[in-house]
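job 3f2a | input accepted
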Amino acid sequence: MKRFLAVVTRPADVDPEILARHKDYLQALLDRGSLLLSGPFGEAPGGAYLLRAADQAVAQAIVKSDPMLLDPRAEIVLREWVIRLDAMEARA
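job 3f2a | predicted structure (92 res):
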């Protein structure tokens, strides 16, 4: 499986309902094993999440289904991330 980093840019005044649906969506991804990490940025609205997917097309489909994109001002940039060093895996 490959890893993909999704970087979310959103306005500070995003609708709370969209934000709640986004969080629920990420939880569902975590529950099914597609999401590895997620969290908001400390200094600005938005955040990032790390996906596990077979390929770019699968990862892109996951991102396109993110309810955050219901706000037309939101944007999610997806990049394949080839991780060379991973402290979490090294401890496992």
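job 3f2a | The radius of gyration is 13 Å.
job 3f2a | closed
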